[in-house]
Design goal:
Belongs to the NADH dehydrogenase family. This protein is an alpha/beta fold. The protein is 29% helix and 24% strand. Helix 1 packs parallel to helix 9 (294-313) and helix 1 (12-24) packs across helix 10.
Length: 399
């Protein structure tokens, strides 16, 4: 009987791992199934551009996996039962269960209002393609009005900064405001913060600092200091969260639902489950938890792939890098910031800005798309056969 590998999620990490496992493991011994809710590959790193009006590529997953032997199941994951090694899914046909021997969990994260009243009902976000398209439709409507409109972006993390600057540049007829809970760009170096402020002034973005939003209404947001900010379209980028599926299934998770993994991305409670990216709570080489980011997804995916192949083929499991080197921030199409960090996660004094940083970020986006949409890189002639590896108990995995 073939070893059943089920990959949940076909984002940057899921598509990469599925393709690389198909390259490195013999199809005579393994059966790889990818479960994804949408039929196309979503460039999450560019969803703010999609919302602002740009067209971005969305390769069909059926084409991405064509000829690889990977099975694609278009369905939404509703539950995971690691004791029975089964995944419950829902689709147009009613859904069902998918059994597995090894589970790769890469369902990522989604926008979260963190209990702020009205955020879920009235705010837009750019954490998923349908959400980005809804915001795009709203912005189209505002641009069609004689009086224009106001866009309020709540949250000055990387997503908030990129969203505000992209909308301001792509839709100059709209008034854009960026609300920061603290100082704008606080994690950046002094020079990078100055560059960010100049970019906001150049693009006509109003920055409201040290302000906490307490409620979102249809046409305004209410702040903790009693002020109200008018908004025709509020974009919520002030938080991300993972879904409750892993916790509900009994996997060991953190307080915010991320799966606790060991150095090889293996669940510490269920050794048949590997988790990566935003879904995983992994400790980096600097001894600090890896942040939710595309870079973390890449490094954890490489480590998980190496671990799965090593375990199943009886080879030594290599230790790959788990680093977080810095942030690449787009400020519209022709400007950006490249901010490197030290081992403590603090910004280094120097940064790269302007067109050079924008070109670097554009290169990263192109590479991420190519790697994810060509996950097999051409299947090799000879792939590894599986070894007769006995099941690993939870106690052995932790040890």
């Amino acid at each position: 009987m073939k070893h059943r590998i089920v990959v949940l999620g076909a984002g940057y990490a899921g598509a990469y791992v599925a393709g690389n496992l198909a390259r490195r493991l013999s199809p005579a011994d393994t059966e790889i199934t990818v479960v994804n809710a949408e039929p196309d590959f979503v460039q999450r790193l560019r969803l703010h551009q999609l919302a602002a009006g740009r067209e971005i590529e969305a390769p069909q997953l059926a084409e991405v996996f064509a000829g690889t032997g990977i099975r694609l199941r278009l369905a939404r994951v509703t539950a995971v039962d690691p004791e029975r090694r089964a995944v419950t899914v829902a689709d147009a046909g009613g859904g069902g269960e998918i059994g597995y021997d090894t589970l790769f969990y890469a369902l990522g994260s989604h926008g979260a209002g963190h209990g702020v009243p009205g955020a879920a009902e009235h705010a837009f976000d750019v954490s998923a393609r349908p959400a980005a398209l809804r915001l795009r439709e709203r912005l189209d409507g505002l641009c069609g009005r004689d009086e224009g409109g106001s866009v309020l972006v709540v949250g000055d993390g990387l997503t908030g900064i990129e969203t505000a600057t992209e909308i301001a540049e792509a839709r100059p007829g709209l008034s854009v405001t960026l609300v920061a809970r603290g100082e704008l760009g606080a994690p950046l170096s002094a020079g990078a913060r100055g560059h960010l402020r100049r970019a906001c002034r150049r693009l006509g973005i109003t920055v409201v600092e040290r302000t906490r939003v307490e409620a979102v209404e249809a046409t305004r947001v209410l702040c903790a200091d009693g002020t109200a900010l008018a908004s025709d379209a509020t974009v919520w980028t002030a938080g991300f969260a993972v879904g409750p599926i892993a916790a509900a299934g009994g996997l060991e998770v953190t307080e915010n639902g991320r799966i606790v993994v060991d150095r090889t991305m293996r669940s510490v409670s269920h050794p048949d489950v590997y988790a990566v990216g935003d879904s995983a709570y992994a400790i980096g080489d600097n001894g600090r938890p890896l942040p939710m980011s595309c870079a973390s997804a890449g490094y954890t995916a490489m480590q998980a792939t190496a671990a799965i192949v090593g375990h199943l083929t009886g080879r030594k499991v290599p230790t790959t890098k788990l680093e977080y080197l810095g942030n690449h921030i787009s400020l519209g199409r022709r400007d950006g910031i490249l901010q490197m960090v030290d081992d403590e996660g603090q910004a280094k004094p120097k940064y790269v800005g302007g067109r050079k940083a924008a070109r670097i970020k554009a290169g990263i986006l192109r590479m991420s798309l190519w790697t994810s949409s060509h996950p097999t890189f051409g299947l090799p002639r000879r792939r590894h056969r599986l070894a007769a590896v006995p099941p690993v108990s939870a106690e052995e995995a932790v040890a």
